[in-house]
Amino acid sequence: MTSASVKGRSGPRRAQEKGPPGAAARDRAAWFLVLPALLPILILSVGPLLYGIALAFTDAQSGRTRSTQWIGTLNFQDLLHDTLFWDSFRIGLIWAFGVTVPQFLLALGLALLLNQKLRMRWLARALAIIPWAMPEVVVGIMWRLVYNPDAGILNETIRDLGLGGGRDWLTGLATALPAVILVGIWAGMPQTTVALLAGLQNTPHELHEAAALDGAGAWRRFRTVTWPAIKPIALAITALNFIWNFNSFALVYVLTSGGPGGRTRLPMLFAYEEAFRYGQFGYAAAMGCVMVAVISVILACYLVGRIKRGEER
Question: What pTM value is reported for the model?
Fold first, then answer.
């Protein structure tokens, strides 16, 4: 075999392995376009996350003249025996479940209602998303006024109905956490409603008509047609809501600042106090690492479930 024939056979093969002409240039152009979006994520999210993880293995404290020493896993060992932190972790789970589950159920009912052909439906949809458009600080201040023991609208309504003299909802040991959970449900429900409503509107109307012709009632149509169509959206928004609620800070901080007696001290509030009230930056960073690990496990379970459902299809 001549060298010319070998060259003729190997040339196209090398060209095929390299890909079509201009592919590398297109890849570079794509990365160039994505880079402006990646830089803020790397600088403002990934960078501080890595710095916080490194800080968790030090004894960093407030004070310019104090040197920081590497102490290994000592902060995490202290966390294992910190009953206050694990108590706040338990409260955080109660808060996350207590907000996420009722939030989803109420949002599903509201989305089903707003999906019907109602008069002034556009106005109802606009009013439903108002809490979503309000900053958490504003929501917290507004609900503090609602819960005000002397002039709050809730206690005034109770007195007008003759049901008692009212109470201080945000400082009572038995009422503080339920009161805060109620605010969390109200503030986050519009976001879930919008997501579920989008899924309902993308469900083919012909499927409902076919099920109705087969004699299926409202519940059966929901179970066999509506729920399978919105199930992926429901699972995604529920997982995200749980993560967001577990990481809540501003709303609870404005309402109760973690009181009374730590009954509403979520993990984020506990870490904030350790860092900026007591100056224990390294210890607070270790708490943040534990919360990141918990969130990562939740995300991993969700992604594994999505992958399994995709393989079954």
Answer: 0.82
Please calculate the CA angle 194-198-200 and round it to the nearest 5 degrees.
Answer: 115
Distance of CA 261 to the CA centre of its chain: 26
Amino acid identity, residue 148? N
* Sign of the alpha-carbon dihedral angle for 190, 195, 201, 207: negative
- Report the amino acid identity of residue 73: T
pLDDT in tens, 13-49: 444 445 455 677 777 777 878 888 888 888 888 888 8
List, in sequence order, every beta strand (DSSP E) within the chain: none
Residue 249 identity (one-letter amino acid)? F
Using CA atoms in the order 294, 298, 303, 306, what is the torsion angle rounded to 10 degrees?
A: 170
- DSSP type of residue 70: B
Q: Which residues pair with 70 in a beta bridge?
A: 58
Q: Which helix (H) or strand (E) holds 108?
A: helix 83-114
Q: Pinpoint the alpha helices (H) of 222-280.
A: 227-246, 250-255, 267-272
The Cα–Cα gap between 196 and 18 comes to 45
